[in-house]
Amino acid sequence: MKDLKSTFISILKALYKPVVIPFFLLVLFLLLNQFLVIDSLFKEKVSLELEVYRRQLNDSFTSIEGQLKHIIEPFFADQFAMLQEPNPIESPFSTQIIDQLKSEIVNLDLEGLELGPDDVNYYRIDSSGVVFETDHSLDLGLDLSRFDYFWKDLKALPEGQAVFNSFDYEKYSNQMRFYAYLKLPDQSIFEVGINLSALDSMILDYSHEMLQSFDGKMVVYHLYNREESHLLTGSLLNEQQDRFLKQSAQEDKAIFKYHSLFFKTIYYSWDHQQLQYSLVITVFEIYAIIILSIFFFTLFLVHYNYFRAKWSILKLSDKLIKPILMLENKMKDFNVKTSEVDIGQFDSQISEIQSMHNSFVKMSDNILASYEEMASMNEELEASYSENEALIEKIERLLETPQTFYSTHDSQEMLCQLFKVMLPMLNRTDFGMVSVIRDHQLHFIESSGIDLDTINSMKIPASKHLDMEKIVFKSYGEGEFYEKLAPKKQTDDMRKMTLSISQGLIIPIASKTQFYGHIAFYNLKDSPNKLTYEDYRIAEFYSHYLKAFLMIRELSELEQEIQKETIFSIIRLLEQHDPYTKGHSENVAKLASEFAVFLELSEKTVQDIYWAGLIHDMGKILIPHTILNKPAKLTEAEFEEIKKHPAYAYDVFKDSQNLKEIAYYVKYHHEKYNGKGYPERLQGDQIPYESRILCIADSWDAMRANRVYKNSLTIEDALNELIKNKAIQFDPILVDQWVAFTKHHSDE
């Protein structure tokens, strides 16, 4: 349950969220929309700047190429014409003429490019592609025929044809050059090469001039034959940059990629004849910082107002809570058990709270008046409750009596449990004991308040108690119990005890025909404990139950004895029919039941396995005598007849109420674990667990018994046979347990 402050805060939150959250989402939406608009405008601006930048560079390249061609093309025409004249006034391609060409080229205004005489070179190439004359000594002897893609086109030129290669990137010198070629009548080629490496600086100047319109960092590349990159500034291309630049070239537009909210990279690439120029520009998004700052400032204002409202509510709640807490403490301190109650003075500026206090004062007076009356009634109720609780406990113990009698098959254990159940019900006793008759003496098996060894050492004869047929509930005079029931030979302590017995409750353990012992409870003289008539009635209740139990037990034992004698008679008949089985059934029953005890199976399962062992070969009575005792080898039909004996036994006993479950175990005791047994070829766990135990016990006794037709096996040989047939005839786990069982018995 929430306190008042928490309630106010919850109300504030409930009112605050429906207003603030939509407002906050609206601001977020507007800022995001503004971000997208600004970003779109920025992209348009950048795209426009890049297009202008591209046109400026292309126009500059075209202008430079045009001016160079305007000088070189007439030069080639004049020199070729001089070669056609029989006696030219001046030698074609002389040093003077070439120097004049260089001077004209150097003096050209090439968009601000500055060229020196060393930047213009000439080359003479023979018909096989070897440079045999040049003013650039590094290229003398260079074999151009190695560059098939290049030399193939030059070699095919007609005489007098000039070729201008525009700007080209010379890979081995890492320089931008402009080349012009003329095919001469002798099939040699005259070449003019101009070093335009200053173009890189011009490109960078144009690039930085463009970059001033937006804040960022730029890397400029140009690609030779669109494959090999030449870096003008910055670092080399990585795989991702190369991919985006190729995309820009294919789509002929700038590619924008965001790295974070504040940084993005622009990839732009375009072609110019043999070359491809590329820009990688990293831009800082200043407007993203501004939008994010607006967002966080809005968030701050929202939370500031929330906490300010919360502070106001808490201040208001204190004015309400303080007097309420004072009243609450007075209510907590109010105790009806104290004789005086100090309500004290209470003043509140809030009329409702003051009214609550006045009502509490009146209510406390009424409660105090009623409390004394209720206290006296409560004492009476508690006394009655204690009596009822004790009575209910006794009734519950009486209802548990059947469970006490039938929870065990052992009579002595049952008597001990019964004694322990009765003790708390007869809680007004000094000591008690349970005795049974054994060898004409009382043998004490359980006691309370007296030592068992001490009382058993006196060897009390049972003769004085044999005539007990009813419960004895009696008070004894001084020495009376000693004279009538106490043994003559006692220790001094026992004599003092028996002389001072003043009260006894003795319950005979007897059926209609036989006395087994007694359960007795005693009190001593000067003891505060006194047995009552109610205790006698409880003893009488248990006595009737005990007598009925003993009579049922006697009838059950008689029934089992008759059943056992009947089965043994049939076994004797079987032994007359098949002399080789003499003693075999009893041995199997004994072995199987002892093995079941070793496996810690239940008492009922042990008994069932014992009976199954006794009757497991009963079906052989129905097998003809001539087959059972045939001295020669059995035919297949005769063996099939013998294999029917488990089913015969099952058919005989399956309708018996007591033996039908046992008959089921007998039916399958010749099944094999691998499924090759009989009568139904069951396999593994399909065979009843009890039948698997019988199978091992039956085989063991057969191997260990002496017969006319074979000698018995030693324990070691018999165990080896069982192990050899694990998982074939026998359950492998049970074989391992039988080995342990045999070792256990041999150790004993």
Describe the structure.
The protein is an alpha+beta fold. The chain has four domains: 4-199, Beta-Lactamase, CATH 3.30.450.20; 215-284; 401-539, GAF domain (Beta-Lactamase), CATH 3.30.450.40; 578-747, Hypothetical protein af1432, CATH 1.10.3210. The chain is built from 22 helices and 15 strands. The strands form three sheets. The protein has a five-stranded antiparallel β-sheet, covered by helices on one side. Strands 7-6-10-9-8 form a five-stranded antiparallel β-sheet. A hairpin with a 4-residue loop joins β8 (255-258) and β9 (263-272).
Topology:
Blueprint lengths: L3 H81 L10 H12 L13 E6 L5 E4 L13 H8 L6 E9 L4 E9 L5 E7 L2 H14 L4 E9 L3 E4 L7 H13 L3 E4 L4 E10 L2 E10 L1 H48 L17 H49 L1 H6 L4 H15 L5 E8 L2 E8 L3 H5 L15 E4 L4 H5 L7 H8 L1 E10 L4 E10 L8 H45 L6 H15 L4 H13 L9 H4 L7 H7 L2 H9 L6 H8 L21 H16 L10 H10 L7 H16 L1
Helix pairs in contact: 1-4, 1-6, 6-7, 14-15, 14-20, 15-19, 15-20, 18-19, 19-20, 20-21
Nutshell version of this structure?
The chain is α+β, with helices and mostly antiparallel strands. It has helices at 4-84, 95-106, 148-155, 198-211, 239-251, 286-333, 351-399, 401-406, 411-425, 452-456, 480-484, 492-499, 533-577, 584-598, 603-615, 625-628, 636-642, 645-653, 660-667, 689-704, 715-724, 732-747; strands at 120-125, 131-134, 162-170, 175-183, 189-195, 216-224, 228-231, 255-258, 263-272, 275-284, 431-438, 441-448, 472-475, 501-510, 515-524. It has four domains: 4-199, 2-Layer Sandwich (Beta-Lactamase), CATH 3.30.450; 215-284; 401-539, GAF domain (Beta-Lactamase, 2-Layer Sandwich), CATH 3.30.450; 578-747, Orthogonal Bundle (Hypothetical protein af1432).
